[in-house]
Amino acid sequence: MSTLNQSHGSAPESISINGGPPQPLHQTSNERGGTKARSSKKYKHTFAIHAEAKTSCLSHDAEATPSFLGFRNLMGLVLVVSNLRLMIENLKKYGILITLSGSSISSNDWRWGVFLYFLTPCHLFGAYVIELLAAKAANDVRGKEKKNADAIDHIITEQDKKNLFSTWKPIAIIHAINATTMLVFATWVVYYEIHNPGIGVLTQLHSVVVWLKVCSYALTNRDLRHAMLSNDPSGADLPALYKTCPYPSNITVGNLSYFWWAPTLVYQPVYPMNKTRRWDFILKRTAEFFLLSALIWITSAQYAVPLLRNSLTDISSLNFVNILERVLKLSTISLVCWLAGFFALFQSFMNGLAEIMCFADREFYGDWWNSSTVRSYWTSWNKPVTHFMKRHIYAPMIGRGVPPIVAQILTFLFSGILHELLIGVPTHNILGFAFFGMVGQLPLIFLTDVFKDAKGHNAKLVGNLIFWLSFCVFGQPIAAIAYFFAWHAKYGTETRPAWPTAKAIM
Amino acid sequence: MSTLNQSHGSAPESISINGGPPQPLHQTSNERGGTKARSSKKYKHTFAIHAEAKTSCLSHDAEATPSFLGFRNLMGLVLVVSNLRLMIENLKKYGILITLSGSSISSNDWRWGVFLYFLTPCHLFGAYVIELLAAKAANDVRGKEKKNADAIDHIITEQDKKNLFSTWKPIAIIHAINATTMLVFATWVVYYEIHNPGIGVLTQLHSVVVWLKVCSYALTNRDLRHAMLSNDPSGADLPALYKTCPYPSNITVGNLSYFWWAPTLVYQPVYPMNKTRRWDFILKRTAEFFLLSALIWITSAQYAVPLLRNSLTDISSLNFVNILERVLKLSTISLVCWLAGFFALFQSFMNGLAEIMCFADREFYGDWWNSSTVRSYWTSWNKPVTHFMKRHIYAPMIGRGVPPIVAQILTFLFSGILHELLIGVPTHNILGFAFFGMVGQLPLIFLTDVFKDAKGHNAKLVGNLIFWLSFCVFGQPIAAIAYFFAWHAKYGTETRPAWPTAKAIM
User: Fold this and answer.
1) What string of H, E and C letters represents the secondary structure of B214-235?
2) What job does this protein perform (chains A, B) (predicted)?
3) What is the pTM (predicted TM-score) of this model?
């Protein structure tokens, strides 16, 4: 009864018609309960339900816009329901496609994968040896300087500078050889020897990560060495954080090993640290990581693979309506994989690893999903890479007087090469889709920059929709279809059980 | 460049590691521009990117929960994209199914439809004649009273009361005969003579609306008559709004005609009125109404009908997985029709009609989409019917001492009968689905009432999801499939061009 009475209870106690003075609504109290005298109870049917002018809450002239939270809930529900339906449809059509056998991966792939897993980090220790020698040379120069200038506040002479540069050049060359040999060798192995793209991507990713770490280690230590040789006693040119471990005392195996496992690509002699490890936190992140990985695997095997196979004929016959239909269907699947993958890697894995390493700076990503510009997406979704790019590529170029726009283009070119290495090489088709996908972000960035300073809610919405559309709805599915098609054009179905559709186009 | 520098700019100027005192970050200013001395610019690579402990924004230990507006946008986008895909799939499978020919409606249906369209309101004027006679009788009684008691403040005697009741009984019987004859005749015609369910629903809806208006007119005037006869000179028992038109001066053809066309089922001698009509407003509402009607028609013909036809075999073979799949697919389509239909009828049509009639109380619905209880949905989605039920059925019962729970059950039983009349009769299958669909709301109401007083955001969310699931995702599609199946079991495909699937099960 309460709700039926609610609107009586909330009915205004006074009414105003056509601007006249408010008048009491005598009937209101009659409706509330059954305690009044019988004479007034009789006239229920005369109650003035329409007692005052009111607007419909969806009209433009309504006083306040109503909440639309219920429609947000409905959207989520319809998404779940319609994808549940597609899952039933898929099950009816294909049955269960997921198998636990890993037999399709050749023993050659496994051997190379394991070999490179152990070989790759060795180059990090190669970099350590180089830095150890460089530190020794720098110490020698410094020792000589100290002898010459003794207790006087020292200023670098021309001869010192020459010494300094004479040690820097060979060090740079040896570092470049060490790091790049590793990357080139790993790339060669993945492209020519590892057939399975899964093992290929993991191996290539490992080598790229280690290569970036070696670069950061070398570049940072070079600047630390310069800072030591410039011999500013206040150390004001260096972050205060580093004072606890001044150069060259950071050149140790322990310090490097920490950097090797720390969830960052940027070398610092000292990082902000936690004092304790929360083991339940580590356990939860590990569980999340494995559950999400299973989700991605099931989604790929059960939903993405049949869809990609079905699209092969449409691509070879260039049936654009069908290709569009396939891209749109794939977009939901790739979105699930992308979001699950993002969470698994950047939230679960990195937080878990950071907890193990007592690494306190957990800002591995920003709220990129709210990005209203493509630029803010690229600077916030992957902070470890953004930090590397900013510190070792973009900022040094700006410091050397390169115009920002040129520096941005060069940064994205570099990033494009890394992306092509990570996708093109393991799939044995250097198509340039990944590369141009990255470089193609530049026009999008300049296009969506107009939404950055827009104040209106709608401009931000449009920017956010452009980001999602370009990146997740079209970008990723089109790239996935392209690499899948190229793979099948090159290898056919040799590594998989025969599949009617795929066979038909051979 | 601005964004790449942004996080430098926004980097804290001081850091605190492991609870130590904040220390200045000397590097920050170096990174901003190229104006500093060369010596400090050199050490770009040593910049402390990881300068303080930070949390990931999705972690539970984050200081603030980030905004998830971007994900709401993504949900909307995925909904649009995945339904766009289904539209392409539908077009590839069926081509364009929409035709403008209305030839499948027999001339007999048209004739009866038009005849009832003009006949139905006549009974409203029948009610007017009855009230005119009743008012005359009441005036006679009052005149006699006045003669007897003259200028003294009058109190009703036993004889007066007898007179009063002696007029009331025959009036009630004649009203009941007048109103119910019309409803029974219209129902008989729709069930036996009008084959087309579209014309059937419109005719039946018209007769139900007029029947409710006649009931409200009769009941309200009875109470107004009682109030006049009780002769309270202050008129305190009646709403102040009615003072401008005291009984029996409201019993005119003009007053009744206004009620006939006013967007309400509840009779009042006087309504809150607007002084002017906004013709652009009327034009916009009319355009909305026709566009939304076209949307519903296209959605039904192109998407719902093939789906319903495809489900016929699954229903006759009781394949529950397939039926579930059909129900889930139909739910999106029926939701579009439902939301468009709601907006077309309650926002566009009723606001347009109200503007024409200068009817000022436009509260035809509340924000039912946010309902966290099924009760609040039923009291807010259709205010005209809720007002009728509250004023003429529920409140009088409560006033007569009926327990609220019994009054609620009786109200829903009455509503169930009306729903079955509106759906079962035009589809020529009085299955009881509509009736029990309404009565089945009662347990749902008592179930979801637990969420009404729940303070938490999650309880409201659960309540809202239960409402959407029960009503829109399962309730409506299941009812639609049931009536469609019953229709085809009874009539086969006689009124439509032959259809392979439908033919197969005959």
Assistant:
1) HHHHHHHHHHHHHHHHHCCCCC
2) Sterol O-acyltransferase that catalyzes the formation of stery esters.
3) 0.77
